[in-house]
Amino acid sequence: MSREPEGGAVRREFFRAAYALGAPWDIGRPQRAFIELWEAGGISGEVLEVGCGFAENALFLAAQGLRVCGVDLMEPAILRAREAARARGLEVAFHVGNAMELASLGRRFDTLIDSALLHVFEPGDRPAFAASLASVLRPGGHYHALYFRDGPRAVPPDALRATFGEGWRVKGIREAHYEQTDPEGARAWLATVARVADE
Asked: b/e map of 9-32 (b: 16 or more CB within 10 Å)?
């Protein structure tokens, strides 16, 4: 039986309510940070969006011709993502699933993208999350995470490096902007981490 991450039940209720009432991250378009990363050649091969929500990032990448998969714990978000893919004529494999149990997908990917999921986890749960990512990311592949730079959910650069230790190489952490329905959005970090070896 898998271990429930710290505060997992509370987080599920928060996201369930957010998707029902209007999530502040539902901006109806991909995050500019990921568009720029794609334009710079940083996203390639088979792609998984972890914690995809309504999956605008995944849908954008699929429209560029990439083979894309998305996973999220919230079924209403996945159902809407599937509807959007059908409406746009895009083939994207969307799954209801736990980001802490990605091996259950039975697939491996060249690129993983994460739009504001990393900072949801408590510090004690981050190593397990990193191990879950490693289970689906091919050696040489990259994990790109956009996450909060300020506030109680912030993940400082030293904490990011501590989470991705053996078997990983942090290639860069740069200042970025996380877009929200609030026009000001939020200050963020965009980290790129390479998978260098199997566990």
From this structure: eeeeeebeebbeeebebbbeebbe
Crossing angle for the helix pair 8-21 and 75-88, nearest 10 degrees?
A: 40
Spell out a b/e string for 124-161, using b for 16 or more CB atoms within 10 Å of the CB, else e.
ebbebbbebbbebbeeebbbbbbbbbeeeeebeeeebe
Neighbours of 106 (CB within 10 A): 7
List the domains of the chain with CATH numbers: 8-195 (3.40.50.150)
Q: Residue 49's CB: how many other CB atoms inside 10 A?
A: 31
Q: What is the pLDDT of residue 107?
A: 96
Tokens, residue 138 = 């091919």
pTM of structure: 0.88
pLDDT band at 27 (very low <50, low <70, confident <90, very high): confident
Contact 161, 49 (CB under 8 A): no
What φ, ψ does residue 55 adopt, rounded to 5°? Answer: 70, 30
What is the biggest distance separating any 2 CA atoms in the chain, rounded to whole angstroms? 42
Name the residue type at position 53.
G
